[in-house]
Please model this.
Amino acid sequence: MVEKGAKPSRRRAAVAVAIMLGLLVVAIGVSRLVSADREAIVAGGSSDTSPPSVASASVGTTTTAAATTTVPPSTEAPVATTAPAVTEPIDPPPVLREEHPPLRDIDGWLQSDVTSLEELRGKVVIVEFWTFGCYNCRNRLPYTQDIYAAYRDQGLEIVGIHSPEFAYEKEVDAIVEAMDRLGVTWPVVLDTDRRTFREWQGSPAYWPRTYVLDRTGRVRFDHIGEGAYGALEDTVVALLAEAP
Amino acid sequence: MSLLVEALRSALLPCSYSILLMALVLLGLRKRGERAEVLGLFYLGTVLLAWLPLAGVNLMLDHRLGGAAVLGAGLALTASRFRAGAGGAALVGAFAGATWLPCVGPQLGSVLTRGLVEPSTAVLPLALYLAGVMVPSALIYLLAAKDTGFRSFLARRRVRIGFQVAAALLPVAVVTGGYDRLVGELARLSNL
Model:
């Protein structure tokens, strides 16, 4: 019975694969049109100071972010553990969004003296979406710790937004224990229902995702996943050098 | 190449369990001669729906009801006796791709960051990455195709019924949140 069905099955498979490949080609064509539209929006919208919607914001964000953060990340040297002198940057990081999205329906802050991002105006802020069970988020932590140690005294703050992926990551006790174990010493926002996660990233959304806000709250860096540590440090150094 | 290596490493991590789980449920729903076709269609559906959101197309399959409907339809088609039923595996793959929350290592991170701007640049890297993620599934399918005890195990009537029951329960689990809890529990166990 199995052998009997094998040949038609191969033929059907070939047809199905051809259809799927056709769909892929169509989708690629659509995406090219979409990306052309997006580039037009970004190019024409640079003077727009109103907060963009999540969908268009993530487009604008990554258009330039890709250029600044997709350097080969895996071979980058670790962040310096002692702060180099902050100098005037040659190329200031581009403004990706004029205003960062709000913290939506959060459940509180851990180890923090502040309770909003607005209270951190005047500082350069790394906002990192993470969850303690996420393998790649844990891999980022040593670099984040190094950059925090190196630039904290110069006006850098880090805010980790803990957006749990699974139910066991939602328990506050487990989060506190993980922060202690993993050496997370910066303020952490509890985003239990992932509303802020969606508000900032739209769909698709990823762990980890790293943004950098300048002293006025504008988004100046965006990177998905591990890596881009050198680009992150360059951005922080450049933004610290900007006038408050 | 480094993207494939990263994918192979990721294949063993909790973030890939949802894809493995779907591939395993599909394994017992078609005859032996059609399993390669099933896995291939599942793969293509996964790639397509993992990539479409980067192009700004969100089919809302990550919502419980919509996802369960597509998943249920895909599993029912695959389990059916229709000749073209194996095409249902593409729908199951679509669900898997839409709900996939990848481990974003340095290589995939670069692909995704760039892909949000130029979606077309992400298609082939994503296809390659997902091929790596599906290596364990492919090995299991290969094992099921060889003349082994596993193949005869899968051919048992009770086992086939077991697969059908699992396929019927999966959409229900998606609607009720049980599926998320199951994948979460697997993740927790793997982090111990």
About this structure: Chain A touches chain B through 60 residues (CB under 8 Å). The longest strand of chain A covers residues 124-130.
